[in-house]
Write a structure and sequence with these properties.
Layout: E1 14-25, E2 28-41, E3 46-49, H1 63-73, H2 78-85, H3 89-106, E4 115-124, E5 128-135, E6 140-145, H4 151-161, H5 163-167, E7 171-174, H6 178-187, E8 192-195, H7 197-218, H8 221-227, H9 231-235, H10 243-255, H11 257-269, H12 278-290, H13 298-309, H14 311-315, H15 328-342
Parallel strand pairs: 4-7, 7-8
Antiparallel strand pairs: 1-2, 2-3, 4-5, 5-6
Helix pairs in contact: 1-3, 2-3, 4-6, 7-11, 7-13, 10-11
Length: 352
Amino acid sequence: MCSGCGRASSSYRDRRTHRVRDLDAGTTRIYLEFEYRRVACPHCKAVKRETLSMLAKSARFTQRFEDRIGQLCREMSIKRVAELNRLSWDQVCRMEKCYMRRLLEQHPPSLQLRTIGVDEISIHKGHVYAVVVADLDQRRPIWLGGQGRTEEDLELFFDAMGPERCKTIKLAVMDMWKPFRKATRNHAPNAQIVYDKFHIMRHLADALDQVRRSEYKRVNEKERRFIKGQRYTLLSHKSNLDMEGRRALQMLLKANKRLHKAYLLKESFGQLWDYTNPAWARKFFERWKDQLRWQRLKPFEKFAALIENHWDGIVSYCHPDHKVSLGFMEGVNNKIRIIQRRAYGIKDQEYL
């Protein structure tokens, strides 16, 4: 069988002797020497060696040796694996890439993609992004690509999945970025869009921080000492603060009435995702907006308008079938950032 096109041949051209490295026996390196046939393939119009399943793609090592190197790279650095097996850094890197490609081929995305999560990840400084897509039912990333976070970048994912698989998508979790929303509606017409709670709460935290800054400028020098240096204390969840942080928060809220009101509004808004009925969720949001009257909290009023404009994608989470893990994508992004830090200095985008 031709190693180029994979087609069978009834004859062969000649025989050659070849030697490859196999798994070591303790500290002794093992090499296999054997004869293989070369085929004059009429389809490739070239002389190719026969296909041997025991050989790795490079034909310099056996497949099981390459798999073993890939498994070691999951536990150790490339440099250390190269030293232990007396290989070069580039050889180990190439074998690990081949090992990871085979893993991806063995575990393709599901043919029935019911729920996907979409987010962007910063690749380099200077607003260089890539798009990350995960299967939220199987809780694993299935695609990373693109050169930014435009509509065309996400369309690359839908093109890779194919139109039939895209029709099976029923739920798409993402932030409120318009290009992602447009690409999803164009290529996955059956998908219901749900906006990620993490990004919504981040907008609310930014609004609270703007109130903190404006209050710091407005109050006198005596009251500023309660606000200065308390950004983390104010934006963190109360359960994540230690005793000293809770005391500082209590003093801050007592000293400034407007910040106290903004903090209570921020903490209560998270209850929106506990509702299972869209009508009750709407009533909660209307009551939450009513509390903004006469409070002179302009950043919170802008946030309320943002929620109003994207209400359909937010309230869709209330449907019983839409209760998916909204924080999974941020966990995937954090793992990618850890990999980037550990792989500092490696420029190969495919390898990362």
